[in-house]
Design goal:
The complex is a heterotrimer.
Chain A: H1 4-28, E1 50-54, H2 70-79, E2 84-86, E3 92-94, E4 97-102, E5 108-113, H3 127-138, H4 156-160, E6 171-175, E7 178-182, H5 190-193, H6 204-210, E8 226-232, E9 236-241, E10 255-259, H7 264-272, H8 287-293, E11 298-311, H9 322-330, H10 334-342, E12 347-348, H11 371-384, E13 394-400, H12 403-420, E14 423-429, H13 431-440, E15 446-452, H14 459-462, H15 479-489, H16 494-511, E16 514-525, E17 530-531, E18 547-548
Parallel strand pairs in A: 1-10, 13-14, 13-15
Antiparallel strand pairs in A: 2-3, 4-5, 5-7, 6-7, 8-9, 9-10, 11-15, 11-16, 12-16, 17-18
Chain B: H1 2-29, H2 43-52, H3 59-71, H4 86-121, H5 126-140, H6 143-157, H7 171-201, H8 204-211, H9 216-254, H10 259-268, H11 272-300, H12 302-305
Chain C: E1 6-17, E2 20-32, E3 37-42, H1 48-55, E4 63-71, E5 74-75, H2 81-87, E6 92-95, H3 99-102, H4 109-121, H5 125-138, H6 144-148, H7 157-169, E7 175-179, H8 187-204, E8 207-212, H9 215-219, E9 224-229, E10 232-237, H10 239-244, H11 249-257, E11 280-291, E12 301-313, E13 318-322, H12 329-336, E14 344-349, E15 352-353, H13 359-365, E16 369-372, H14 386-397, H15 403-416, H16 433-445, E17 451-455, H17 463-480, E18 483-488, H18 491-497, E19 500-505, E20 508-514, H19 515-520, H20 525-533, H21 539-544, H22 575-579, E21 585-587, E22 590-592, H23 597-608
Parallel strand pairs in C: 3-8, 3-9, 6-7, 7-8, 13-18, 13-19, 16-17, 17-18
Antiparallel strand pairs in C: 1-2, 1-4, 4-5, 9-10, 11-12, 11-14, 14-15, 19-20, 20-22, 21-22
Helix pairs in contact in C: 4-5, 5-7, 7-8, 14-15, 14-16, 15-16, 16-17
Classes of the chains: A alpha+beta, B mainly alpha, C alpha/beta.
Chain lengths: 551, 308, 609
């Protein structure tokens, strides 16, 4: 919210006073009066299996082909199930499909449907439903903002761009039980893509009957573990257990309430007042305090994202100025940044790709130096680039208005000042203004950025800096890098592909068109009585895997 | 009186048009658009979206289209909440905002006017100073500070009331938001009433009433209350506007499904139609309320009533 | 006689102020017999009002009364609020100076009267309305049923005071305290109200305490008088004793300060520049204010404040302008000063048409055209020192003047108007009303103007202060060779200062004549009525004088009568008066605008012989 800065600043002393006044004691041992959680054995389930989750923003829709937000996909994960399901361990297991085969060239996938698969209204769920749904997902008339995730499917790009009809999509139901998907190139992470909401099935009769309103309570028919019972916009969304779900026998939670709470302070308050069992996030200022007070309720885990500051490589002073870019990057003490400045569980980043599966994250050699060594080298490079104490670099650091970004930007400016004598001007902008400026690459010099992977694969990160990518905000352009990526995309052999991608990241780090700072961590509060919660890299959670202990 | 009514209503129309035009062009002048986000949409998809919502047309044409739809009572589809029309969203949010706002206004009036009148009758006594000091505090603490403070103490600390949410309008969920929203108005109204009551009580016609041997209670009720309430009534218009702006913050903090929250998220997301819808709706509402306040004022003050 | 109705002994009133206690009334003794009229006379601050307010427990919160006030067997000062409320409004009623603010503007007349009837007589609804209506009729308000539903602002000033009196008399009190009941009223209306009080007293046998600053008002009405000064009784006695044989020096001074309408003032000095070119020439002047009219698309209406007015002013001349409220006299002054635009006609000053002048030229002319307003405190900037206030015109008109020279001139002017120049660094609120008016005069005079418009310049001042200011003005006029346009409603004051007098009514000149001529031999029926209505501070004369009562009040200037504007109140009106607007024509030494002036003159001569 726009007034956030002032509000937070004003709020802090008040919060502190209140916390000191002893409000915290009670919540530190929330179940003190109710006996041990889960009964004497620790695993006794509660009578009422009801889960209340904070969910950030209000979802823009619950039509899986028309949503992009994390908030919507959290709920859709409970409502729908793709052909493939990703477990909390990142393992891909059969979902709506019972099994599948991949052709030797990696270009064809054949899925076998479960004979007992049903929609929440009892209708049978068939391969034809998926054929219809994937076509709908790519149909430009659907206005799916995320359809590009399906581009590996044959003709998908042409369909999305309207050059081919949706029927030309490389998806075909051979019969009710068999679905074939053809790809335009070998895509080792393709199965992972099928866990995305764009690949969820929608119930054709309801879509055709209700049109835009098919995803409303009473209309929505889904195939996941839950069905939509109630949606009071801006208040809550209530899901009830789908008795037709294939694996309903293993579902424990009967009812899930999602609360849209944008303000994370408010969310924590409601959590502490026992109105929520899980939060969506945690205000970063409270992380340390919560970690001490809420004994183990704060769950922090690595998250599939990289936080970085980009250089504008298309304009001076950073264009064709590797020494300067390197100098600024080396002068940042990432340990101090993550541990002292933030202290909220993030890992320092020396490379660009977070720890994804089937990949070794790359590090430049100087990542293993001491910070003193790095500083010395940074100073040398700084002078080499033509700057000095007398003639310091003057640079603008742009970030979107937010306390966390502000703190980090301030820390960077201080480190640069101390080590190199750089004069940094901090500039903050409202979100939409900021992204527009960042994209235009005109007024930016150094800017805050971050990238969250769409799927658990290095490619989702590295492709960002391909010179043809419209979102290459740093404006990085190196033909060698592009060539490595293009080659990797066309390679079916996993080992070979991995080597190509790792080579690409090494090239990227050598060119240092941006300063990787840290890999994200997911943070949320989870009540001790919520069982089955397993933090994971994608931060995806299925309510069906959770249960409520007696408390 | 009828003429006056029609005249006032007619003069509201140009005001509203100016408001609509200003809001329409201002929100579009703000950098960034409804489909700009961290992760870019493929250009073709964005083009599709822009076309679907007529954002590819020249601005003036869009404005004409908007006015045309508005004349038919159609606020258009929300650009952010893609399954909903703006009308649906406002219809869903308004009862909540109205309930909170009306209760807050009622509380503000009851508490503010009685505290102010009470203080005025005890002018310069300790209790007067106490009430006024409390009022000053109420005015000085912004509701985005007051709200979390109340939540921490009453909901998180004491566990008496919920920390947020609407709970379908259950009273337990309304208490804190209503109090927080009303508090600055209570304080302001108390000060206003006190000042105005003191002025009225020192006016010659109150002396006349005392000289006529009327009891203090009768003087207060029959002679003093109505004139003392006039400034209160004329403040109601601004108070309603203040409550509406206040509700934007309150709904956010307490997670209430009201219009104010749509306004904030709408503005941040550049949801043009939603922001416009809220602006037009609230603009009309404020104009109507001001008009009603004028009518009430006329009823209370005979000198206004008989003016042409 | 069973003794006095009210017997007050050693009444004291003290106020606790932040600056310490203030004794407003000291050991005051007086008594009122049943049915008697006691006049209490004094200047502002004499404690006359506070003493009476104390009797009814109406002092401000920081006021304390002491002493004893026996009324119908109980000591008023010892009663608690509840007991007192059974006396107030019931046995003793009180009415105040300004009926507009003393009546609740938010309640209908009937409702206000009903509250009193309900509190004291337990009457409600129709019964109360009947009683209130009857009382309105007996104070001379016709169509009472309709009036009861009206609000104070819908009534004229005189009507409001009648309502006040009617409300006061609802419970047939044995004592009515009237605090300056006619001060805010026009002179013809004042005569009506005084007449009414006289009548009601006779009818109900109510004793009256009449508080006033105006000796003339009580001269004819009071049975006994009490002269107060600085919280003490200076002298008490019958009107004859007080007026004809005052024992106290203060009483004598007070009487001497009262301007006498029935006697010419000190003879005005002859015009020194007789026959010289006129200083000011006003031709066919009209001034109108647009007023928002009724209706959805109604046109604006024009309030004709001044209609077709012409006159000349010779250098050194003092022209008095007199008339009741709404007659346009103040607008005339403002139009001469070009403070309001004329809608027609011209104002020429020193031969130049002010209306045609460029802005800058007009501003330059303003140093010769100055003004003094009624309320001295309100017309002086409270944030400026007296020195800055007086020096301000100099800074405008002589920007090159050295600071020291400017201060010298201010000091000189202050001493000229009778102020201590060493006080020049004080602020207006540190001066009394009279002193503030001296400051305003000093400011007006500092640029050595040729003409000063005095708009009710002495109306807000106490009698004795007023006399001083008038003396000062006349002396300065002589010394500085000033011309004055002296606008006022008080005929006696006008008579004292003016060489020529203009009588206005509803924006038109009724009569214009040399002062002696106008007051000695009034020709226009309106002039005659004004003179007849004005009380004279002479008990015998007042009691014997036939009162030519002028019925009704001034009509709204928004809808003036056709033809002669005065015809609706004129005892001599005929058809012609409604048909034609009379023009100002010369009759002897005077100019008169009346169709019937000749006949009236004849009949007056006949009745005199």
């Amino acid at each position: 919210m726009p007034e956030g800065v002032n509000r937070r600043a004003a709020l802090l002393p008040v919060l502190l006073c209140c916390l000191l006044a002893g409000c915290g004691e009670r919540t530190a041992v929330p179940s003190a009066s109710a006996g041990p959680v889960g009964g004497p054995g620790g695993q006794e389930r509660a009578q009422q299996q009801l889960l209340r989750k904070g969910n950030g923003a209000e979802p823009e829709s619950l039509d899986p082909h028309r949503t992009e937000s994390v908030a919507a996909s959290n709920i859709e994960r409970d409502l729908f199930e793709g052909l493939v399901l990703e477990t909390e361990d990142g393992e891909l297991v059969p979902g709506a499909a019972a099994s599948w085969e991949v052709s030797a060239d990696g270009l064809s996938y054949r899925f076998h449907m479960r004979p007992d698969a049903r929609w929440s209204n009892g209708d049978r769920l068939t391969a034809r439903d998926f054929e219809y749904s994937l076509r709908r997902s790519c149909d430009p008339a659907t206005l799916n903002g995320y359809s590009s995730i399906l581009y590996p499917i044959l003709n998908a790009e042409a369909v999305v761009e309207g050059r081919l009809p949706p029927t030309a999509l490389g998806v075909q139901a051979l019969d009710d039980a068999t679905l074939e998907i053809h790809l335009s190139g070998p895509t080792p992470y393709f199965l992972g893509l099928l866990t995305h909401s764009s690949a969820y099935p929608v119930h054709r009769p309801s879509v055709e009957r209700y049109g835009e309103k098919f995803a409303r309570p009473g209309n929505l028919v889904s195939n996941g573990a839950y069905r939509l019972e109630e949606w009071v916009i801006q208040s809550h969304i209530r899901l009830l257990r789908n008795r037709y779900y294939r694996d309903d026998a293993h579902t424990s939670i009967d009812e899930v309430w999602y609360y849209p709470i944008e303000n994370d302070d408010a969310e924590v308050n409601r959590y502490r007042a026992d109105e929520l069992d899980m939060t969506e996030g945690v205000p970063f200022r409270q992380v340390r305090w919560l970690r001490e007070q809420l004994l183990g309720e704060l769950r922090i885990a690595p998250y599939l994202g990289t936080y970085y500051f980009g250089f504008n490589n298309t304009r001076p002073p950073f264009r064709d100025n590797l020494p300067l870019r390197l100098a600024l990057s080396m002068a940042v003490d990432r340990d101090i940044l993550t541990q002292r400045v933030m202290g909220t569980g993030e890992q320092p980043a020396w490379g660009f790709v977070p720890p994804v599966v089937n990949y070794s994250g790359q590090r430049p050699a100087w990542a293993d130096w001491t910070q003193e060594q790095r500083n010395a080298e940074a100073r040398r490079l700084y002078h080499e680039a033509g700057y000095s104490e007398q003639h310091p670099l003057e640079v603008e650091l742009l970030y979107n208005t937010d306390q966390n970004h502000k703190r980090i930007a301030g820390a960077l400016a201080a480190m640069w000042k101390q080590t190199l004598g750089v004069r940094t001007k901090l500039l903050n902008q409202e979100w939409k203004v900021f992204i527009e400026n960042r994209k235009r690459r005109v007024i930016t010099q150094v800017f805050r950025s971050g990238w969250i992977g769409d799927y658990n694969d290095a490619y989702t990160f590295l492709q960002l800096l391909h010179s043809a990518n419209g979102q290459n905000d740093p404006g990085y352009r190196n033909p060698a890098y592009d060539a490595l990526l293009d080659q990797a995309a066309a390679t079916a052999d996993p080992a070979e592909r991995r080597a190509l991608l790792e080579a690409a990241e090494r090239q990227l780090l050598a060119d240092q068109p941006l300063i990787p700072l840290y890999f994200y961590a997911s943070k949320r509060l989870v009540k001790p009585w919520v069982g089955g919660y397993r933090p994971n890299l994608m931060d995806h959670h299925h309510s069906k895997d959770l249960y409520i202990l007696r408390h | 009186m009828l003429r006056f009514t029609i005249q006032r209503l007619l003069t509201g129309i140009p005001t509203l048009l100016v408001l609509i035009a200003a809001a329409f062009f201002l929100i579009r002048a703000a950098p960034g658009g409804p489909f700009d986000r961290e992760r870019d949409l493929p250009p073709e998809i964005e083009a599709n979206l822009r076309q679907a919502y007529h954002l590819d047309e020249p601005l003036v044409r869009q404005f004409g289209r908007y006015l045309g739809n508005l004349a038919r009572g159609d606020f258009g589809p929300s650009l952010q909440y893609r399954d909903f029309s703006v009308t649906e969203l406002i219809r869903a949010g308004f009862p909540v905002s109205l309930r909170i706002g009306a209760l807050a206004m009622l509380l503000a009036l009851l508490a503010g006017v009685s505290a102010g009148a009470w203080a005025a009758l005890r002018q310069n006594a300790a209790s007067d100073h106490l009430v006024m000091a409390a009022a000053m505090t109420g005015i000085s603490i912004p509701n985005f500070v007051m709200a979390p403070l109340l939540v921490l103490v009453v909901a998180v600390g004491l566990g008496w009331l919920p920390a947020g949410g609407y709970g379908g309008g259950a009273w337990r969920h309304l208490v804190l938001p209503v109090i927080t929203l009303a508090l600055p108005q209570v304080a302001y109204l108390a000060r206003l009433t006190r000042a105005s009551m003191i002025e009225v009580l020192s006016s010659p016609y109150i002396r006349t009433a005392r000289a006529q041997g009327l009891s203090p209670g009768r003087i207060l009720l029959q002679h003093a209350l109505r004139p003392a309430l006039l400034p209160v009534v004329s403040y109601l218009g601004p108070a309603i506007a203040a409550l509406i702006t206040g509700s934007v913050v309150i709904e956010q903090i307490f997670g209430l499904p009201g219009i104010g929250r749509f306004f904030v998220t709408g503005a941040l997301n550049r949801d043009y139609t939603l922001v416009m819808g809220v602006v037009v709706f609230y603009g009309t509402l404020i104009l109507l309320c001001n008009f009603l306040v004028d009518l009430v004022y006329g009823l209370l003050d005979p000198r206004i009533r008989h003016l042409p | 006689m069973s003794g006095p109705l009210l017997d007050v002994t050693s009444l004291g009133v003290r106020f606790d102020t932040p600056a310490g206690p203030l004794q407003a009334v000291r050991s005051l003794d007086f008594a009122v017999a049943p049915g008697e009229v006691l006049g209490v006379v004094g200047e502002s601050g004499s404690g006359k009002s506070q003493a009476m307010l104390a009797l009814l427990g109406l002092l401000a919160a920081n006021g304390r009364a002491s002493g004893r006030a026996l009324f119908e067997g109980q000591d008023l000062l010892a009663l608690d609020e509840a007991r007192l409320n059974r006396v107030r409004g019931s046995r003793i009623a009180m009415i105040f100076q300004d009926p507009m603010t003393s009546l609740n503007p938010y309640l209908a007349i009937g409702a206000q009267m009903a509250l009193v009837l309900r509190a004291h007589r337990g009457l409600r609804g129709r019964e109360a309305a009947r009683e209130a209506g009857a009382m309105l009729e007996s104070v001379g308000i016709p169509d009472a049923g309709r009036r009861l539903r009206q609000y104070p602002h819908e009534l004229s000033g005189g009507m409001r005071q009648r309502v006040m009196i009617a409300t006061a008399l609802l419970c047939r009190p044995s004592l009515l305290i009237a605090d300056e009941p006619t001060t805010a009223l026009d002179v013809t209306v004042q005569a009506q109200i005084l007449e009414l009080m006289q009548t009601l007293r006779a009818r109900f046998g109510t004793a009256i305490i009449l508080i006033t600053h105006d000796l003339a008002v009580v001269a004819g009405l009071a049975d006994r008088l009490l002269v107060m000064q600085q919280g003490e009784c200076r002298e008490a006695g019958s009107p004859e004793e007080i007026f004809y044989a005052p024992r106290e020096r203060y009483t004598r001074a007070l009487l001497a300060a009262v301007p006498r309408l029935d006697r010419a003032g000190p003879p005005a000095p002859p015009l020194r520049h007789a026959g010289a070119a006129p200083l000011l020439q006003v031709r066919g002047l009209r001034v109108g204010y647009p007023v928002l009219a009724e209706g959805l698309f109604g046109r604006k209406r024009l309030l004709r404040a001044v209609e077709d007015l012409s006159f000349e002013l010779a250098p050194g001349e003092v022209l008095g302008v007199v008339g009741e409220s709404g007659c346009g006299k103040s607008t005339l002054g403002r139009a001469v000063l070009q403070l309001v635009p004329a809608s027609a006609g011209s104002v020429s000053f020193l031969g130049r048409d002010l209306g045609q002048l460029e802005r800058a030229a007009l501003d330059a002319m303003r140093r010769d055209l100055q003004v003094v307003f009624q309320d001295p405190l309100a017309s002086l900037d409270p944030r400026m020192t007296v020195r800055d206030i007086v020096a301000e015109p100099l800074e405008t008109f002589e920007p090159g003047m050295a600071e020291a020279e400017r201060s010298n001139q201010v000091a000189e002017m202050l001493s000229r108007v009778g102020l201590d120049p060493s006080h020049m660094n004080r602020y207006p609120h540190q001066f009394s009303g009279g002193q503030c008016q001296r400051v305003a005069i000093a400011r007006a005079l500092i640029t050595r103007p040729k003409l000063i418009v005095c708009d009710e310049a002495v109306s807000a001042l106490d009698v004795s202060v007023r006399a001083q200011i008038l003396r000062l003005l006349l002396e300065l006029r002589r010394l500085l060779d000033l011309s004055l346009i002296f606008i006022g409603h008080d005929l006696a004051v006008i008579r004292q200062v003016s060489q020529r007098v203009m009588v206005m009514y509803l924006g038109r000149v009724m009569e214009m004549a040399p002062a002696g001529e106008l007051f000695g031999q009034p020709r226009h029926p309106y002039t005659r009525a004004l003179l007849a209505a004005a009380p004279v501070p002479d008990p015998r004369l007042e009691r014997s004088r036939p009162r030519v009562g002028l019925a009704g009040e001034v009509p709204s200037p928004l809808a003036p009568p056709d033809g002669c504007v005065f015809r609706t109140r004129c005892p001599h009106a005929r058809e012609i008066c409604a048909a034609q607007v009379p023009v100002l024509a010369r009759h002897g030494a005077a100019e008169v605008a009346c169709h019937r002036v000749a006949e009236i003159q004849e009949s007056a001569l006949e009745s005199a012989s």
